[in-house]
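Forum: Protein Structure Q&A
Topic: Joint prediction for protein chains with partners

I've read a bunch of threads here and the consensus seems to be that you should model interacting components together rather than docking separate models afterwards. I'd like to see that in practice. Below is the full input, 281 residues plus whatever partners are listed. Could one of the regulars post the assembled result?
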Amino acid sequence: MARLVLLSDLHLSHTHGFFWDNWRRARDAANAADADMVVICGDLCINGTDSDGEMALAGRALARLSAPWRAIPGNHDTGEEPPGQAPDQIITEARLARWHNVFGADRFAETVGAWRIIGINAQLLGSGLPAEAEQDSWLDQELHGTDLPIVLIQHKPLFLSDPMETAVTATCTTPAPRAALLRRIRGADVRLVVSGHLHAYRDMTINGLRYLWLPATSFTGQPHAGAVPMVAITSIDLTTETPEITLHHPEGLRPIDLVELKQGRYAFLRDMPACPPDEAA
Ligand SMILES: [Fe+2]
Ligand SMILES: [Fe+2]
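Posted by a regular:
Agreed with the consensus. Here's the joint model:
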């Protein structure tokens, strides 16, 4: 069997350990899953956009995965693609550098079983940074440099309900870069697009292309477009050209509600009283 394990939206912090217990349960389940590869689908941090300490903690956390792993950034790691939710949270060269210092690359291409797995930094899409153009040309090479069917992984969903939708929201990739990426995808043998970000599970096929939204390991999201808010880890059997997707619910993984956690008193998790994680656990 060729097994890919997917973990998403860890939201770890060395000062705010709300989700550390969930992380270690997800990590232990991933380590017990006999994975050929683990992919972490972004939002490793709560405030990695401005915190060396958080990024360093995320690096130490992933070092305790036993299988080979690759990570791609989310908006809580390198910042949002513009226009973003707040002007002070947009992706910058400095934020990219913080990621590179801990994790090296922010994209990857690997073979697992009968599939080619390509992960990209979706936070670059529409950013205009030089790294966006570099990633585009790298992606074109990777998409056409294999005879295998392709799984494309990025942090944000490409769209909510319709590839042609025009709303600009923080929930998914903005329309212009989405259209460009979809043209690339349709010109290659991409069969499955995997994303995190919304902390909710969804599995749909549109125009022959399958889209999988991953549950988080940290807290539950909103039921955007009929998705099911959920904490879980996900595995995909990629032994054959028919992928088998399975959700796993490790014992003790708690469906933490963000509104309840913030007690209606705090806008951001980073504003809450410090509660460092027990990193040894
Ligand atoms: Fe997230
Ligand atoms: Fe996110």
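The CA atoms of residues 152 and 193 lie 5 Å apart.
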